[in-house]
Amino acid sequence: MTIKEFSGVWTAIVTPMNENGKVDYGSLESLVEKQVEGGVSGIVAVGTTGESPTLTPKEHIEVIAKIHEFAAGRIPVVAGTGSNSTAESIDMTKEADEIGVEGFLIVAPYYNKPTQEGVFLHFSEIAKITEKPIILYTIPGRCGIGIENETALRLRNAYPNFIAIKEAGGKVEKVRDMYAKAQGKMNVLSGDDGLTVEFMKSGAKGVVSVASNLIPAPMVELVNFCLNSQWEKAEALHEKLFPLFKDLFIEPNPVPAKYALAKTGMIATSAVRLPLCRMSDEHCIKLMQTLNSLNLI
């Protein structure tokens, strides 16, 4: 895949579960179909939104394989294969590569808090075992560290398969700086639905979206407005959808997203695995009001 193809809306798909905590592959297949019908550019399988921290290693690979099977070549699948262990990330990347996924989303090594040199070496070892595209994922709020632009560009210069970075640090100036320095060699994708328009004004080429689980077609419309510099239309649609962007993070992701998907009938249950748990009644009411205001119920 080319850099240009890593633009648009990439759905960070949830991993539906039944009330017994098992993965609900029926709901997952239905959700993949909704993404294809909605026109998204691709699917990110088993990222944070897919509850990667609580899936077993076996489940992790099984879910990636099922999503790839359900997509059936109609849209590309990028596998989340990041870890704070370089060896573990390499093993998962190899397994996902054998499944046939089109690329990988790999988060910064969390908890260890390595230096930027350590980050560079971590990603370098992973890049050596695949020729497929890799999207770097920087989210300092969850990882304790970020991937600096200089490190991302150093990786891109050393290994051509680093083609994009998912920026979830919330800083528009970092997006602007990357856009200027990358000179078309690396795309930026927003890691926050609510910042998509602002980031794309600063040079980002799309979003890895949680909201598109629920509203794939409107998210595609929003991003296409931005890609075509139709900023008035983009701002108007952003304003309409912003309450949903906000309320999908009223509690830790993907708890609100799964609640909304279950209430709209897109998945069977809102079940999550501990330590995540059911939303508070107050937040359930608030999210329901937002869903009703957008005629999603």
Automatic annotation (TrEMBL):
The reaction(s) this protein catalyses: L-aspartate 4-semialdehyde + pyruvate = (2S,4S)-4-hydroxy-2,3,4,5-tetrahydrodipicolinate + H2O + H(+)
The enzyme's E.C. designation: 4.3.3.7
Compartments, as annotated in UniProt: Cytoplasm
Catalytic residue list: Y137, K166
Keywords: Amino-acid biosynthesis, Cytoplasm, Diaminopimelate biosynthesis, Lyase, Lysine biosynthesis, Schiff base
InterPro entries: Aldolase_TIM, DapA, DapA-like, Schiff_base-form_aldolases_CS
Record site feature (Part of a proton relay during catalysis), residues: T48, Y111
Gene Ontology terms, MF aspect: 4-hydroxy-tetrahydrodipicolinate synthase activity
CDD domains documented for this protein: DHDPS (cd00950)
Pathway: Amino-acid biosynthesis; L-lysine biosynthesis via DAP pathway; (S)-tetrahydrodipicolinate from L-aspartate: step 3/4
Domain of life: Bacteria
SMART domains for this protein: DHDPS (SM01130)
Binding site for pyruvate: T49, V208
Pfam families registered for this protein in UniProt: DHDPS
Primary subcellular site in the record, as a coarse category: cytoplasm
PANTHER family with a match to the protein in the record: 4-HYDROXY-2-OXOGLUTARATE ALDOLASE, MITOCHONDRIAL, DIHYDRODIPICOLINATE SYNTHASE
Subunit structure: Homotetramer; dimer of dimers.
Role description: Catalyzes the condensation of (S)-aspartate-beta-semialdehyde [(S)-ASA] and pyruvate to 4-hydroxy-tetrahydrodipicolinate (HTPA).
Family: Belongs to the DapA family.
Name the record gives this protein: 4-hydroxy-tetrahydrodipicolinate synthase
Protein source organism: Intestinicryptomonas porci
Record gene name: dapA
